[in-house]
Amino acid sequence: MATSSKLMKSALALCGAALVLAGCASSEDMRALRQPAMPPVAVAKASPARPFYRNIAVQEIQGAPEFRWFDGGAVMTTRPTRKQVFDQLSLHLDRADMLAPRLDAEYMLYVQFDELRGPDVWLGSDKLASASITFRLVRWRTNQLVVEKTVETSYRTQWVGITPEMVRAGIAGPIGVARDSAIAPVGGVLGGMLLGYYVNEELTVSIAAAPYAGLIGGVQAAAIDGPGRFDPGAASAFTTAVNIGRASGRFTDLEAMLAGGAILGVSGAAGPAPATRAVAAGDVISGEFSGTARRFAATRGLVDLAFDQFMRELSRDGSVVYKRAVSCRALNPYGYRGAHMIETADAYAVDCPAARYNNSPTTRAYPARF
Known about the structure:
By secondary structure, this protein is α/β, with parallel strands linked by helices. The protein has helices at 2-22, 27-33, 82-95, 164-172, 183-202, 210-225, 230-247, 253-269, 291-314, 328-331; strands at 42-46, 56-62, 107-117, 127-139, 144-157, 280-281, 284-285, 320-326, 347-349. The relative contact order is 0.16. Mean pLDDT is 73; it is low at 1-22, 272-283 and 365-370.
């Protein structure tokens, strides 16, 4: 019996080590993730002297699903929905000084998606979205087709593997009040299994020690995320200590590991500070443990990149002007706390108060990830 228990522990340890090593990020990827995102190079704005200036409304979107669930015969789809595309395009038009109320708009934008493919749902994989997107601008009073542009595009958010930051947050779990809502439950399960085994083998824990554990957990949560997190941290630590005290020495090692993993996993899922930790390189979210965040990033990036290429088509006749992205201080060397300048004929201050703009991904020289 003892031999089989040791073999099981060894097998679990080897499997865990193999999974961790196989999914580790390379040193080059970690260097890229730890760099700040590259600043925007150019900003697309409608020319006030041209007819598209504050004169367009989104009219129709075809080929995008209405719902995420039960679409196209699949149980779940990750393709961008019609509402998501409508909201993104309206925001882009507004930032480019092209959006107008429907009653005032002279031009209507029609969008058609063909061969739209969304990212997969497999754990630890790159998320790729692709489509052929046709943009049509129509002067609705005369039904005249003004501009038509078909864009073949794709956008990938990369899974680089497990980084040291993820490992640290995972080990912390609910005890360290992990800020990543996806990592905290995983870390809780792993930490709980180890803690359950150790307590069951080595310690005899009294339930009377639970209030002290709660106090320590509350103090740690408050130190990490402010005084407002004291109560949730104390409750999580107190519940964990009580359950460990009841389980001590009463189960087999495997039962103790499963019980500890379940307790801390649930605590991590409802932890004191389940906030997502975004990690980005060049605006491509590639360090997210959560596949959901990377899938949404891929679908957003697909629409953003396609719209940027459509704007380049409008810039051929001067209807859209690409301006250099500069700092607010560059246009206002004597300060900008009062009246200040946001843009000139060829430059736009992207960090000025109330500045609204779209990045131009296709003008970036580095990093090239499209």
